[in-house]
Every structure is written in structure tokens, then in C-alpha cells.
Amino acid sequence: MRISSCQCTLFMILSAASGFSLSTGPLMILRQQRHHRQLVSNSQLNLDGEGMAGRTFNKHLLGDIIRALQPSYLSQLQKSVAGNLKGMQTLDLGPFLSYQGQSTANCVTWEELANTLRQQQTSQEKNFRSNLGQGLIHSPLATHRKFNRSSFDDAAVFVSFFRDSAAWCPYCQKVYMTLEEKQIPYKVVKVDMNSYAGTSKPGDFLQIQPSGSLPCAIIHREGTKDQVIQQSDDILVAIDALENNSNIKISSLYPKSETEKEYMKFLCDDGRNSLERRLYAEWLWYLTGKRRPDEYRQRFETILDEVDSTLSSNPGSFFLKDFSMADIKFIPFVERQAASLLYYKGFNLRNTSRWPHIVKWLEAMEKRTSYLMTKSDVYTHSRALPAQLSAGCEFYEGCEEMRDAVDSYCLPTRATSTPESRTAWREPGWDHYHNNIQASKREAAERIIFNHDNICKFAARASGIPGFPAAAAQLADPKAQPNEDALVVVDSFLKCTIGLLLARNDAQKKERMHLATESGRALSKGGEETVQATIDCLDYLRQRIGVPRDMSYPAAQSLREALLVISKMLMQSKLELRENQEKLNSNIS
């Protein structure tokens, strides 16, 4: 395979056709697997560890080099240099501040929005932050989980769980789910991945995990020395063996019989020969391959047929008779396969006519809280995976409609369609949330209200100075400097956005949109550049809402849509200003 220095593919995985019958049961599959092993090559180049955030080579050095050679990264680097040379944007906020000062009716406070939210929240929603602080609920925002214990001192064993900050890492997701399923108390320590950190990992973490790879875990047992475990599969085995020290006894997630153990090995515990790793390898060929797209698709479909047949051999919905570690090991990667191929190829993995048992399994998994709270959306994966893989994800012809549907609320305001032409697409797998859109809007509002100061500073980076050097992930810029002058307008229009989310009826929406429009007209008197800088800040925030890091997918979509409405209004104010100026110039001439 010829690989250019700028467009190299992440993985070189040499594997043969599966050689499996699609109508065999588990025992026949095991017998056929022995033949298959003779056909599989073990040549595999891992440029960034076990594929994303797993085992690393020289602290991700090779992956960092490959990323630095990607055209997309070189473009980011160029933008970073240009932004630093340009400096902070200048905003003329005099007319806007004058308008805001004329009457208190022109602006709502965060406290008033918080009171409005509390009036609409359920009892469970009102207690969210309290329960989160006590470690009583499973949430991507949680820093610890105590389950039914009053403190970690009451637990004979607990785990320090080092995971990635953005909730991108599939290996961390496996550990996260296992801790929840086994109800082992844990503390979360968030560490940035190389692809979006823009800097080295903390020194104290590297002392524990010299390779810098994620996840990592420390098991604390009463009366014994702490145990550091540095590989994800080893962590899963260790967690499964722990007692949760409660009255609730939870069975092992690994099978007990020798036959099931051998079958588990075929599924996911036989290295790259396992079904899960072979599915993973064919996905990467299809996702990043460019030369033979039809062949890559056919090979991936063939391995999906095998996975579907394997699932059909059991009477339930899972890979074994009951939910097991096999399901935990498969789901993070199948989630990313479904999302990335839908976006980049227009490929529907949730095809009930061809892969009904895979769809049935996904639906069963999405009913488990341990998974649903760690699940991401197509948009987040579409932006996260290229940087993680150190490789380009190739778009195929025919994917445009689905790509536009996913991006409909996430492109820059100037590039988005009108509401009338925007595709009304809802991502599958979130039925519980889709059925309660008002709860999703309240979730989004709560996340912004609770942390509004920091969120405003984050959004104000768009009119500030970008960080240097640029991070590998396209939308990551941890070293950027916010524009302090932009904070007041970002704050104002972010409050307008939350007001729209909390509107109970069309009359309230119309009233709040009128106030936002008047503020937009006042802002436009400061000039087009001031309006565009404000739009850029709102776009910056909208494009970086992460699932599940910040909120669930339906909540994220509600917030993205509301932010876009406000940005579109500001864009219209900008266009009106331009038209008025052109008329004035025409009259003068």
C-alpha cells in the first residue's frame, strides 16, 4: 500500500474474508473460528495506540507526527497563525450598551431565568445538582459515585477512574459502564486526550501512567496497598472481581461455564482474531479507505452479517444469554461505527431488514442507564474521530443528504439553511428523550444557567486570539484567549437563547424574540463587524456542544436550534444595516 506523507491511513490491517456460515450456532461458530484464524494476518500498525485512546506508543508520538502532516491540521495551523497576527477583534458596543441602560425591561437576569426554570422543573430535576454533588446519580458531569454509601470511608473498596475530559474515548466508556453495572464506588479524574489537549498530560498522571494512555484506574482496598491498573481490559477484569459491599449482589459480567468462556473468547477476548476486533478493523478500512470504496463497504457488510448471525443464535437480545461483558466491549465501537458511517458514507447500520438482530441489540442497550448516560451523538463523533484516528475520514458520494441533516444546526450561521428548508431529522436511539422535548429544553437551560459565566468566556474566544500551536481536533482550542469586550453581548444573547428555550407558548416566544430583535438592532448600530463578531461567538459555542460531556443529544439539539435562531436574527439585523447603508449611499450619490 502506498501512503503519502500528508494523507496516510491510520491503520494497515491485513485480514481475509470471514469464512463463517451465517446460519450456525455458537458451537459451530467456534469450530469454524479455528479455520478462520489461519486466514487472519497479524500485521497491524497502531499509530495512536489501540486505535484511539488505548495503549500508546511513546506517549502518542507517532500519532502526533501523523496528525501534524494532515492537510486539515496544516489548515488549522495556518488559521491559528493568522488569528494571532490579527489580534483581538474590536467591537463598538456604545449603541448596544446605551440601549441596555435605557430600561431594565430590555434585559433579563440570570437569576430571573433560574427562577423561571425552577417553576417548570420536576422534583427530580430540581434535585439534580444536589444528587450530583452527593454522588447519587450517573451523569457525565459526575466527579464521583457512592451509590448507597454515605461516604467513601464507608466503602471497603473504591476506584479512582482516570478518563478523558471530553467523553470521546471508547476504552474509557467500557470502564465507565462496568463501574455502573457493578455498582462499585468510584471517583472520576478527568485527563485531556492528546488530540484536543494542545499540551502534555499532567505530570502527576504520568507518574501513575507513564505511557499517558487512557483509561487508567487505581483500586483502593481497605488495609491493602493501592493497585494501579493501566490497560482497559485489565481494569474490566479487576472491577468485575470486586464486591460492591452492599446488600445488592451483582453477578459477574463474565461467563462461568467453559463453553461460554470459549465463546466469549471468540466474541471479544482473542485479540485481533475476535469478532469484535475484526469488525473494528473492517470499519476502519471502510471509514478511512479511499482507493476501493465498493470493496471496503462489501467487506464491512459481510462482517456485519456475521455479527447479526451471531446475535441471532441466542434467544435474548444480547451476545450471551444475559447482558455481559461482551456487550460492554462491543457497544462503544458499534456506536462509533454507526455514527461515523452514517455521516461520512450515508450508510445505515440500523437497517432492520438486513441486520435486525443488531438493531434489536442496540435498542436493548439503549434501555440500560449505564450505556445511555455515556452515549454520544453523530455530530460529536463526526468531529471527534478524525483527530483520534490520526487519519482522514473519507466522504463518499451519496452521503450529502444525511451529512446536511446531521450538520443542520451546527454549521456557521452564514452557511445554514432557512428553517423551512432545514431537514427535520431526529437521530435514532433517543426515543425516551424525543418523547419529552420540554424536559430536554429544561436540561439544556439548566446546564447553561448553572455555568453561564464560564460559558460566556468560552464563547468569547471566537472574537479573541486563537491558541498556538493548534490542537489536532478541529474544534478544540484550549489555549485560546477570550475577548473580554465581547462578554457583555455574549451574555445578553445567551440569556435571550435560554429565554426561548423556557418559553411555554407561542405568545411568550414572540415576546422574547421581539426583545432579542430590538437588542440586535441596537447592536447593529455599532457596525457590521460588531454584529459578525457576536454571531461568531454564538456559533463557536453552538458548534462545540458535546454529547454526552455537556448534555444529552436531544438537549443539545434544542440548545443548538435556539442559538441558531438568535444568530439568524442577528444576521438579519446585519443585512438590514447593510441595505440601509447602501440606500443612504445611493441617495447621496
- How large is the count of helical segments? 26
Question: Strand content of the residues, in percent?
Answer: under 5%
| Overall 3D shape | globular
Distance between the termini: 65 Å
Classification by helices and strands:
mainly alpha
Biggest sheet character: 5 strands, mixed
Q: Strand tally, please?
A: 5
Short description:
With 589 residues, the chain is mostly helical.
Account of the protein in words:
It is a single chain. The protein is mainly alpha-helical. The protein has helices at residues 26-37, 61-69, 71-86, 94-102, 110-120, 123-126, 128-133, 170-182, 194-197, 203-208, 232-241, 258-268, 275-288, 293-312, 325-345, 356-365, 369-372, 378-389, 400-407, 431-434, 437-450, 452-459, 487-501, 506-524, 528-542, 553-588; strands at residues 144-145, 157-164, 186-191, 216-221, 227-229. A 5-stranded mixed sheet has the order 1-3-2-4-5, with helices on one face. Helix 25 packs antiparallel against helix 26. Residues 1-63 have low confidence and may be disordered.
